[in-house]
Amino acid sequence: MTRRKDWDTYFMDIAYMASTRSQCGRRHVGAVLVQGKKLLGTAYNGAPSGVPDCSEAGCMLVEEYELVDTASGEQVIKKQRCIRTIHAEQNLLLFTDREDREGSSVYVTDQPCWTCANMLANSGIVEIVYHRAYPKDSEKVSALMAQKGLTFRRMAEYEPPSGTLAEVKN
Questions:
Q1: Binding-site positions
Q2: Which Pfam families match (predicted)?
């Protein structure tokens, strides 16, 4: 007899299945909105509907610089990001209702970036569960979640369903 999956695994599996719709060459991300045990919405990262995506038109990369305090003093960090793509978390917020988000949880394949974390923190959700770490914004995002009082947890031991894990390119 096979063992039934726990709810965290079940919902993270669905987030990974949603990520398979992404056409981003850098990272496939899926997100799921859940209230209790009820699935309320899914989303993935990609270009706006009806617009060529990165696989068709290429990434629109921009460079950003951030001043970071380190043990050896301030350091300038260079980041690249694609501005053609709407993040999975942003799409999830665009396509779900505020009243559905109140008190809900978001399962996302990857730890949210700073912008998505800000949006989620203001969306009415109470919990973010993620699998893969996103080191570029990790400390800032964790601090924001603690400050906001949101549950923020990583499923580090989780194994995605076969065929859903795309290579991550930074």
A1: 87, 113, 116
A2: dCMP_cyt_deam_1
Domain boundaries, the chain: 7-46+85-154
- For domain 7-46+85-154, the question of CATH label 3.40.140.10 is answered with yes
Known binding site for Zn(2+): residues? Answer: 87, 113, 116
> Residue 166 and residue 22: Cα distance in Å, rounded?
10
Instruction: Tell me how crowded residue 121 is: count the other CB atoms within 10 A of its CB.
Output: 19
DSSP-derived 3-state class of residue 164: coil
> Please, are residues 29 and 12 in contact by the beta-carbon 8 Å criterion?
no
User: Is 139 in the active site?
Assistant: no
**From 89, 139, 157, 167, the catalytic residue:** 89
Distance of CA 14 to the CA centre of its chain: 13
Structure token digits, residue 151: 């549950």
Residue 86 in this model has a pLDDT that exceeds 80: yes
Q: What is the pLDDT of residue 3?
A: 87
**Percentage with pLDDT > 90 across the chain:** 64
For residues 168 and 88, the model is more confident at 88
